[in-house]
Write a structure and sequence with these properties.
Blueprint (H helix, E strand, L loop, with lengths): L6 E4 L4 E6 L15 E4 L15 E3 L1 H5 L11 E4 L8 E3 L7 E3 L3 E6 L6 H10 L1 H8 L10 H5 L2 E4 L2 H40 L10 E2 L6 E2 L3 E4 H4 E3 L10 E5 L15 E4 L4 E3 L4 E4 L10 E3 L9 E3 L3 E6 L5 H9 L1 H9 L12 H5 L2 E4 L5 H40 L11
Parallel strand pairs: 3-7, 14-19
Antiparallel strand pairs: 1-9, 2-8, 3-4, 5-6, 5-8, 10-11, 12-21, 13-20, 14-15, 16-19, 17-18, 17-20
Helix pairs in contact: 5-10
Length: about 425
Amino acid sequence: MSNSGWREVKLGEVCSKIGSGSTPTGGANAYCDSGIALIRSQNILDFKFSDVGLTYTNKIQAKKLNNVTIEEGDVLLNITGDSVARCCIVPKDILPARVNQHVAIIRGLQENVDNRYILYYLQHNKTYLLSIAGIGGTRNALTKKMIENLYIKLPPINEQKAIAGTLSCLDDKIELNNRINKNLEEMAQAIFKSWFIDFEPFQNGEFEDSELGRIPKGWRIFSISEIFEINPSRRIPRGTIAPYLDMSNMPTTGHAPKKWIERVVGSGMKFINGDTLVARITPCLENGKTAYVDFLGNNQVGWGSTEYLVIRPRSPISTIFAYILARSDRFRDYAIKRMTGSSGRQRVPADNIGLFKIVLPPLESIIHKDFTVFVESLFKFMRVLTFESRKLVQIRDTLLPKLMSGEIRVPLEEVQ
């Protein structure tokens, strides 16, 4: 098939809306726990929307932002800061919503352009967007004029829909896998809380007083340092190439980092499969950057930022126990309160983490084995879905430039 019917136009020529909002009067004090969603840059990820940190504003404040009212299917693009050029489609269930000054709404003219096609074209051109965002200032920024003047290759509308539909099928499956993994992890966290925080399965037994409140009789209070290794020694010869996990790729939700790279080994924390990584520096600790390492090969050692804490339980405690504990509010609140250092560069020392206390049954108890069997079955399935999603991302990222350039065409008769 030839590329007849394709044309190159400026994005502004085929959009009815390109624009960003502002912060409501009063700044953060104007935020509410419910009302009309106010979408900020932290909610915009590549290809997906995150409701982590989503805030709201009241109808009076929202009325002042009516010029940036979001409609179903709008493309949202981050236009400032370190997350510049990330973009996604707004989810229907977030509406009604507005955006602040760090997020632009892009809305195509329906008769000319498919919004999903715009999304994928922006992702295809992310490197270019990042390059122009760094021009002329100390802070990365995309202006309205830059976005309007961005050239976009447009096939006929039916082919746009076919291209977007093909790529969306991959993204929909990735998102489904993510939702399943989220539910499975929530199940593991619920069991952890039920057994080791609320002691629900053991309510018919005897309890006794302790410094942490009433606990099952025979259970013990342990400091983390008694039963966990904290920053255990791992060795990789300097100058060799090994998997490297950057802080930017540490997940704020879920256990699995989206990507890592191969890099010549330098100074940094070393880890192996079964280790839990916790960011110890502000604001990464507060943001929940935590990972469970299950992506390395057998006997392989990875490495990453010096600002990680590496924790691993001693037998018979499940390695997954450490990850679920690290994700708990009680652990994170404890760590945050024990950060030291100057404002903006605070971090929690490893010794302080070692003093954190938890309640456990005797180490020889069958309870540890039962918990391990349950959570490892969940995480085994999660690993399968995570592996599948990574493969789907590779396929999507391979297809994206070829579909956007017309090198590969979608047979229209197969999608009609």
